[in-house]
Structures are given as C-alpha cells and as structure tokens.
Write a structure and sequence with these properties.
The protein has helices at about 1-25, 25-55, 105-115, 140-155; strands spanning about 60-65, 70-75, 80, 95-100, 125, 130-140, 165-170. It is of the alpha+beta class. Strand 5 and strand 6 form a beta hairpin. It is rod-shaped.
C-alpha cells in the first residue's frame, strides 16, 4: 500500500507540473483579451451613435444665397434651455453655434466663458435628445449671422472643435413646455 501511495503522489505531482504551463500568460491570451476589449468598446461606440446620433443625423444642410455670397446653414429643431442664459424670444431664425455638448454642465460652462470673454448674449439651446448647442448670437438675416461667425473665427479667442462654428436655422424651433400651475 505504501508503494501505491508514493506512486499516486508522483503521478499527482507530475500532473500538476504538466498543467502549470497552461496557467502562464501568453501572447495569445493577451491578444484574446485585447480583442474582447476592442469589441466591447466598438459595441459601446455604436450604441452611443445610436442614442446621441439620431437627432444630429436628422439635421439637414442647405446653402442660402445672400447679398454677400453663399452661406451654408444647418437646420434642426431646438429650444432654449430653461437655465441656459437665454429667453425663447431671443432665438431667431439664424444662430451662430460655437459649441456642442452632450452634457448641459459643459454647455453652460462654455456659455459662461463666452459671457466673461465679451459675448454676454450667448445662450444654450437643446435638441430632443437632448444635445446642447451654444449659440453665440441669433439673427433674423443669414448674411448677418455669417458675418458674426467670421468675426468670431477671426478673433480666435475661443478654440473650437469641428464642426463648429456653424449657422443653425432654428425655423423648426420647439416651444418650451408649459409649467404646471
């Protein structure tokens, strides 16, 4: 019986040592983990584009002829946010958009920096998603909006990410919800 016990111990030890290399990290293991991570990130990115891209994909673009030349204008339904620094009556047809954010906090932060930097009339509008645009100024005439946008770009005081700045036609503006009494 002692011989069987020693043999069993040796066999068990040999099996354990034979299995140890399978526990080692290998390049194949790293590759597999990397590919899983990339797949998960891509799945999140596609979800993000589905959730936040719906309204932006509905934005249309047109070129308007003015006395000063042609102006590209994007059209989307928006409304002035309740605490975005503006009033619904301030939202005219042509709006110079200088920033866009998913978070209202970030939009309000840029609006505040613009106000401190000499643009006190800036305000925040939102889409149905909601997605927030910072409007530098609002005009009834596309040529005036284009002139204001070019002056802002020439100033260069505020760095912007593409596609900003652009002119937003808020013809289809949404009315704010009536407050309950």
């Amino acid at each position: 019986m002692k011989a069987i016990g020693k043999t069993s111990i040796w066999v068990a030890t040999a099996i354990i040592f034979a299995g140890l290399p399978a526990c080692k990290t290998s390049e194949a293991n790293y590759r597999e983990a990397y590919e899983k991570t990339i797949a998960a990130r891509d799945a999140e990115a596609s979800l993000d584009s589905t959730i936040y891209g719906t309204q932006r994909r509905q934005m249309t673009s047109a070129t308007i002829e003015t006395a000063d030349g042609n102006v590209e204008v994007r059209r989307q339904m928006v409304k002035v946010t309740s605490d975005g620094g503006g009033l619904p009556e301030n939202l005219k047809k042509y709006n110079v958009v200088v920033g866009q954010f998913k978070q209202l906090f970030n939009a309000k932060s840029l609006r505040n920096r613009l106000a401190d930097g000499g643009y006190p009339s800036a305000f925040v509008v939102e889409t149905a998603e909601p997605y927030y645009y910072i409007v530098l100024a609002s005009f009834s005439d596309a040529a005036e909006a284009a002139k204001a946008m070019e002056e802002f770009k020439a100033n260069g005081a505020f760095p912007m990410k593409e596609p900003c700045p652009f002119i937003l036609d808020a013809t289809g503006r949404r009315q704010p919800k009536a407050s309950a009494r």
